Queue: 2 jobs
Job 1
Amino acid sequence: MTDNSDHREWDMEITASSSLLDLKLRDVWQYRDLLYLLVRRDVVSFYKQTVLGPVWFFAQPIITIIFYSFIGNLAGISTGGVPRPLFYLAGTIIWNYFADCLTKTSTVFKDNSGLLGKVYFPRLIMPLSLIASNLIRFTVQLILFVILLVFYSFKSGHITLNIYALMFPILVLIIAAQGLGIGMLISSVTTKYRDLAFVVSFGVPLLVYTTTILFPLSEVYTKYPAYSWVVEYNPVTAIIEFFRYGFLGEGTNDWWLLAYSVAFTLVVAFAGIIVFNRVERNFVDTV
Amino acid sequence: MSKVIKVENLSKAYQLGNFGTGTISRDLERFWARLRGKEDPFLKIGETNDRTTKGESDIVWSLKDINFDIEQGDTVGIIGRNGAGKSTLLKVLSRVTSPTSGSVKLKGRVASLLEVGTGFHPELTGRENVYLNGAILGMRRAEIKRKFDEIVDFSGVERYIDTPVKRYSSGMYVRLAFAVAAHLESEILIVDEVLAVGDSEFQAKCLGKMGDVSVGEGRTVLFVSHNMGSIRQLCKNAILLNNGQLLTHASVDETLSLYLKSNIANGSLKDYKHQGPLANMITFEECAVNKIVNKEAVFAPSEELSVSIKYRCTTVVPKFRLSLNFYKDSLLLFTLHNKSWPAELKASEYQDEFTIPAYLLRPGNYTLGLGGHDGDPISDGREWIFINEAYSFAITNEWNELNDFSGKGLINIHPR
């Protein structure tokens, strides 16, 4: 028996259901300091009790491109005239960012069930903090890429940077939204049914071979035109291609491919948010 | 006074058992029912939550149609047996999980403390964790900065503040964690049994701080505890839950006495382990203090305590006398006997009473050991029987000229 005046008095109402698209963005904004501190925690705890500290952020991509260069040489895969380390690094850092966002987000409920089960804060903070702390790793790796790019530019006396490089921030945004969206979808399902977690753990490393990290898209078109759709359907392909095109002058600036990737991102991010929103209210009971 | 919490028809159902293929098909059925705008078919068959009986369905109502209002500045204790729904209620109120039906309306900022040190990262230093934990509990960074010195001061771990918390002792960890929580600025504070950890000195400090909070700042506090002593000390009113339903919402004394009387079954000593050669001849049946048999009883220092013991002897025991041990924190305080010399015990039922004067026992938790043997004051007994922790109770803090806090020691005696 509450009249309207009484209704306005309450600051908050907890009920069984809420609207699907209510993202509680105002809450998220209020907790922005938590977002900052969680990112700080992730970054700081990564290199605590190590001697070399943040240098370890470089180790993984360097070792990866050394191996890729070796294998690429051995198999004689073309890189479209780009120096191998530069070519592989471009693909690797983009892919790593995508894969890290996806895998970390896909286990967000499970990994933090202790925390999320004991205290309320907007749940969206948690995946957002993962995206942000991975962005810091990504930036560190990007510095490595820039150093390598400058080095090879001096060596060859040829500057490959062009106007397409300006698209870089948009590309990062798309890749982050992809990782976040897919990750949120998976994390929501795995609160109750853990099956998808297994698919992620072996599937993501395999997907490396379905995008243009180890080979240029042009190579796929010439050698395996019948199977090129596999690579094209991977939404990361367009991002890597445009990134390489802007910085290295090699790649495919196929706008249709990018449009597909953007459309895919929108659908996935939208679905991810809806499902996440639905699950976040009660996942504590089932996780 | 205005209402700050209004709970209406609140219910929460849980699903028991494992999740597997069976639950998938059921989830689909529920989804289909929802699509057609029908009621969830699986919630209709739910039953009340009594963990001791085996139910028919695997849906259980952890909370069922709970209604209550709480006024601003009130301190409310939530009591009930294990599994009565206390923690679920707190979880719903603090928005960790959402109700199955019904609603909760809240006024003002809610801070909940279902666990201390939530989100502490072992690799980070005390300082970093204070910031992180504060932010998790809903504080802004500027706010934590302002209160930082106060928090460290309250915790008493200043020397270690720049050391990773993984090197802390568990006590230091809890102190720091509670210090953060105690400095939350919220209109409503929800506290689960977080004080079970930590030494008694620090517990008293925390209770004091929570008391300050509600009296001094007009804050509303909801408090779950199994320690009836702290409930009585801290709360004005109390809510009694049983099997997910609300039984009473009244003053703390009224609710506590109802609760203590309601669980008669808990008072039976028949299931207790009787040790010693006489165990098959004598059985202790009941131990009650001031007629309360529940083992979570709480008494004020001003109450005279009358301990009554019922026991049964099945055959003739040539020599026997009953003894009653009082322990405080596992330390034997004193022993009382029912007679000065052992005497023959015929097969029959017996009841003995012991009276402890008011103000003799200082505030704290006590346990009683119950036994007897054939030894007299000058010789050791050979035939004996004993049961541990036959009863436990708490004496509350209550200042009185006869119970001066500055007097120290185990028991309280006044020269006449």
Job 2
Amino acid sequence: MTITPQMLGQVVISGILAGALYAMVALGLSLIFGVMRVINVAHGPLLMLGAFATYFLYHGLGLNPYLGLPLVMVVMFGVGALVQRTLVARVVDAPELQSLLLTFGIAIALVNLAQLAFTSDIRSVEYLTASWTVGGFAFSKSRVIAGVLAVAITAGAFLFLGRTRLGKAIRATSQSPDVALVCGIDVDRIRMITFGLACALAGAGGALIAVMVAIQPEMGQIWTFKSFLVIVLGGAGNYPGALLGGILLGLVEQLSSLLLTAQLSEAVSYVLLVLVLLVRPTGLLGGRAT
Amino acid sequence: MRRVVLPALAVVLAALAVYPTVASGYGVRAMLQLFMWVALAGSWNLISGLTGYVSFGHIAFFGAGAYATALAIARWHWPWPVAALAGGVAACLLALVIGYPCLRLKGPYFAISMLGLNEVLRALVSYFEGLTGGGSGLSLPTLEATIPIYYAMGAVAVAVTALAYAIITSRFGLRLMTIREDEVAAEAMGIDTARHKLAAFLLSAAGPGIVGGLFARDQGFIEPLSTFALVMTITMIVMVLFGGKGTVWGPVLGAVVLFVSQELVWARFPYVHQLLFGAIIVAVVLLMPRGVLGVLQQRYRLPRTI
Amino acid sequence: MHRNAAGALIVVLALVLSRLPGDAQAPLRIGASISLTGTYASLGQMMKRGYDVCLKDVNAKGGALGRKVELVSYDDRSDPGTGVKLYEKLITEDKVDGVIGPYSSAITEAVANVTEKYKKVMLTPLGATSSIFKKGRRYVIGVITPSEAYLEGLIDIAARRGAKTAAFIYEDTLFPKSSVRDPGAAVDIAKKKGLQVTFVEAYPKGTTDFAALITKLKAAGPDVFGAATYFDDAVALTRQMKELNFSPKAYGVTVGGDLPKFYELLKQNAEYVYGPSQWETGLPYPGEKEFVEAFRQQFKEDPSYHAASSYSGCQIYVDAVRRAGSIDADRVREVLLKLETRTTLGDFKVDQDGLQIAHKMVTFQWQDGKKIIVWPDELASGKPRYPTPAWTQR
């Protein structure tokens, strides 16, 4: 099949839109890793909770999914803070493997709880199903809005991290918990807030994804891996790296589906990842070796 | 200690050797799968438990072995024991090719590169359907060999455990654990870390390769999704951590306890087995982070080489 | 301490792994593994419900061989390996008297090795890939039309109305792949009917973003487009086709499009979508009304063909046991190979390999929120709305 510029353009658009979303969701994972050295495997299932919250707000209260988004973020912040305080806080200083396993346990428990509570039936938020056409290119409404909101939320998170006192405290803790502690930062509290913030980002992702794809308890896992891929690509714990990694992953997935076949697109992403790591063992934007 | 342990082991092995003559078909198959998990968990422990390099895609070696064996049987008509050994060789070759570059990566970077290996292999197996059957899977000619495979699987489980014992009690094992505790220091002490890691990695790939081959022969039908299943990697990790990583008997204990409880729980409570599995993991991590044997070691001054 | 622990372990294992055989006077027990969790959960659920309604009916009519009939089922988590273990457990541990099939071709293919080994007749209400029956297996008996025919209706409808080109995509697993690529399946049918096949490609299980694939399809510009899907992907694909404005003259999916949920989720975007079905409510088959009524009453929803096939498959099996006067596999098999009957699901007759040859599939199209059967002509309840208008006019 000959690839026309038209097709290439369309696929690049899809890739960037998907990538913006990857970046936002992955930023949450990156925050947690940066501040706590915890790989949160439950990130995807938490995103799934956000999607279900959006669904119930939409179908129960008739709340527009985009208006529901801040509410979902607030709720998920609470859920995240709770999970951190009760469970994750106990393993923050343990070896990485322990926390990985703990969050894995949380992940499968969450998925199973969701199956019990919501059943495995597929649900969806049918809102904005059409697209805008500009210059012969189709822009899916839900994906454009998701992309724009994702960029906005990611930018907001960067501003928060860069400008506010709390954000600076988070970055300080991420650079060195011990020094942060000496400087009078309440590291435990920072960790709880970070986890909450990361879950809010996952929840926002869930809300935006809820409008795009089917909602069901097992929808989250794939997002855990994509986020993991994104932050390693960009440099784990490096926050702008998540943005770069996200867009890159979105583009690579779409372009490899177009130029090769959809079957190989995931493999291409991972091959790219390993190649990047071989050249830069800590991801594109550095990060620090752990 | 040794006077108690060796006769006890002999009794257990003898009991397992006669088990197929008294057990039902399901009993044999369940025990066979238990052997499989002992071998898988034990193999993962060799690389990840000893050197601290967490392999998140160890099932890739199982899958590579399964496909190599299945192809050898289906396309080239090799007898299955030879084919399964070839599966082990294929897994080792893969480990050699992958290990050389990837073992330079640290922490999460190594973990995800191994995860990637698994995904890439699955995609390749799906893509080259002319050889592998792709998504339709690969069927082997019907052959009733559950009992011979039972013994073969048992032999692999014993071999992996014995290998772990040999390594952990050797200087080689001590060097690996030095790498785990502090790689820079190990390097400074004159340990050739790259070669040691690669050796451990190769040894940890052989078991899953052979086991994968035996699994393929036993099932008679393999397909990419259930052969390169991430959940299997995670299960072996959980087993090792439950029992106690870096020990000889930890993976065995973890495999036995988790496999048996999963068989029991899943049969009785289909809708909540995952929840219970998750709860067990959370409880183990919070209450006994060094695994059951780790706790026992602390409490009873057991030898390090347990 | 070590010896004690090891000894205790063996005892526990022995207790776990062996149990006393069932009592001869006890009910007739039929075993099955069903996907209650995992990817096939929603379809597995339908299957379980079909079996449940069947057993209720059977027992209301006095069971079989003077015994009550019972289902012993476990969850196989949509995983073939687990299914294999479960059938082995059902047969050798639970000592069930007979077995009946699981959901999906891949799991059926895997467990058939076990049921053959123990010489158990396995009627498979939802295993529909021909290759399962063409491996010299003796005791596997099909109920529904095999995979090759799934897209035939769609292609035929379009070809008779002047379509020139066709494109197909499929999830890369056993059943969807065989419904497109096997000899005599969609690609062959399209060629035979004079269509040019311009694009065929696979996508991995679990795909949620079809943008690149649809872009390629759009460039190929087929008149008729068939997608061999399960449920989640059918929904995602349809949505993204609208977003990317890919509008072939006829578009159909193989599995999932027939579930009421498909329309509930997609609303007017499901309009004009074609789909094959092994069975629909309202077809003129015996016992159809009673079955649908009983199903609705118990589960508050309409049965899909998965439920109907499980229901009829179970009925046929029990009926064969009654006729054979025994649960003995060879005698039941004899009866089934000779059986020619019409059930709630439609016609039943298998060839010497157990492959279903009498049952007829239908093709429906979503029209004004209802599945209207549009193919074949003799079973049709309406005319296809062809060609499909642009997305903005649905």
